[in-house]
Design goal:
The protein is mainly α. The chain is 64% helix and 8% strand. It has one domain. β7 and β8 form a beta hairpin.
């Protein structure tokens, strides 16, 4: 393999592994806020017990997330030097904002969240929990802003790189870079809001399913019954709302992609020829025959979703030169797997919500057993969603804009009937890699990072397993805490002890 391909694999492995932990951090942060909020409202110590337990898991995920995230920033300078030079002004602003407004907020209150249970009052601890959760959300904002700008660049112009006032040349051509002209236009580029909402919902699903998985296991084993039910109930509400919201968000996301990256959406749906388009449910796209084999499709479904008219033409891959088309097979399958899993989440959460309403959820053991391994599914859905988004914008690492005709029915094409991108405002992936890094060097670092990630993954699984096996600890009385930090009365504590040990476990 060449250095560019190996660099892409290395970054994909790095970010694919790292991405698990920010998802859990954001999702669990919402769960912690909900649990502590209910404790402040009801003073029921079972909520404090749950919050203490999930805080330990949150801290573990946060630590692994920080350790795995640092590596990617080094790769920008080592493997992707040309890319870093082109986007440095944009990325520098976004990542600086992420560090100042998000990471410092998140990490600054983390010590209170983890170690402050018996040192500060419940209100102060709740505030710290809220700040940590907001910090994780703010962090995702700036990362998504940076990535979204690559998909739909805005608020910038492209200028030559100067050395002593003279344009820097490479192979006789000036080296270009993107320079911000409007910071807020860069931040609120056309895809930022759509993609950010989609990412948040995906993180909420991961956090909710993570909690439900562990809670379901406790219920099946007859351990920590009340704690497990309260945790499962709250996570189920979050998962159900998120699953339904994902359907709405996905529809808006598809419309945005079609407007700004029509080649990507055509690859998602295996739509080769411009015209009325079916909505493929599954199949195998074949570039040779320009058709989807062994597929099942809804006639006119894609036109109906995009335009509200099944007969209206949809731009196909034939509007783009072969060298400007994304890999159709991987884009198609990753996208459809994401959609299929999204529909599965809706069905699973609605079924569980219905049984909970009927009062039979915790007696339906086969469904609880289904929830135990189901935590893997939203992680896979998020990973393949990002795979579809990143593979679908190829061959571009910074996607140049497309122009639509006056009535918005077709993209503007050149004399050959195909889009001619402005190469000056975009950057191809093949041109973005570091020119002086060899394939052997990238392969060596890929193997080394692989071992490091395996070790970190093993540590995470080992520590998480021990915490789950140990289970929640009873929340101690708030002796020495602030005036508002006194916890429940002794009588309520006695009831709580019975709940925690499963004395009220009827599941």
């Amino acid at each position: 393999m060449d250095a560019v391909t190996l660099s892409r694999i290395q970054f994909a492995v790095s970010i694919g592994f790292h991405y698990i932990f920010p998802l859990l951090t954001i999702g669990l942060g919402i769960v912690l806020v909900w649990l502590e909020g209910w404790f402040l409202k009801t003073r029921d110590p079972i909520y404090e017990t749950a919050a203490r337990f999930w805080t330990k898991v949150f801290a573990l995920n946060f630590a692994i997330g920080v350790a795995t995230g640092i590596v990617m920033e080094f790769q920008f300078g080592t493997n992707w030097a040309t890319y870093s030079r082109f986007v440095g002004d944009v990325f520098g602003s976004a990542l600086a904002a992420e560090g100042i407004f998000a990471f410092f907020l998140e990490s600054g209150f983390l010590a209170i969240l983890v170690f402050g249970w018996d040192r500060v009052g419940p209100k102060m601890h709740f505030f710290a929990t809220l700040m940590v959760s907001l910090g994780s959300i703010f962090s995702s904002i700036w990362i998504v802003v940076a990535n979204s700008w690559q998909q739909t660049p805005a608020g910038h112009h492209v200028v030559p790189v100067l050395r002593d006032g003279v344009p820097l040349l490479r192979d006789g051509q000036p080296v270009m870079r993107a320079e911000i002209t409007d910071f807020w236009a860069m931040v609120f580029n056309p895809s930022t809001v759509h993609r950010l909402v989609h990412v948040w919902i995906g993180a909420f699903l991961v956090g909710a399913f993570f909690v439900m998985s562990i809670a379901a296991w406790y219920l099946l084993k007859g351990r920590h019954g009340e704690f497990a039910r309260r945790s499962f109930d709250g996570a189920l509400v979050l998962a159900t709302v998120s699953a339904l919201a994902m359907l709405v968000s996905g529809h808006g996301q598809a419309g945005m992609v079609y407007r700004h990256q029509p080649a990507k959406l055509a690859a998602f749906e295996g739509h080769y020829v411009t015209g009325p388009a079916d909505l493929n449910l599954f199949g195998i796209p074949d570039d040779a025959t320009q058709a989807v084999k062994l597929g099942v499709a809804v006639p006119g479904g894609l036109g109906l979703l995009l335009h509200g008219d099944p007969g209206r033409p949809v731009v196909g891959l034939d509007r783009f030169r072969p060298e400007d088309r994304p890999p159709v097979g991987l884009s198609f399958q990753s996208y459809h797997l994401m959609v299929a899993l999204g529909m599965a989440f809706i069905g699973l959460t609605l079924l569980a919500s219905f049984l909970r309403w009927r009062g039979t959820l915790y007696e339906t053991r086969w469904l609880l057993w289904l929830f135990v391994p189901a935590v893997v599914l939203p992680i896979v859905a998020n990973e393949v969603g990002w795979m579809a988004a990143e593979v679908g914008r190829q061959p571009w690492i910074v996607h140049p804009p497309v122009t639509w005709n006056a009535d918005g029915t077709d993209v503007v094409v050149g004399p050959e009937g195909r889009v001619v991108y402005d190469e000056r405002v975009g950057l191809r992936t093949l041109e973005a890699a570091s020119p002086n890094v060899s394939a052997g060097q990238v392969l060596g670092s890929l193997v080394g990072f692989g071992f490091i990630y395996l070790a970190l993954g093993a540590v995470w699984v080992f520590v998480l397993h021990r915490k789950i096996q140990h289970g929640p600890d009873e929340a101690p009385p708030g002796e020495g805490a602030a005036e508002d930090g006194a916890l429940a009365a002794a009588g309520l504590r006695a009831v709580h002890e019975g709940r925690l040990t499963g004395g009220e476990d009827r599941g």
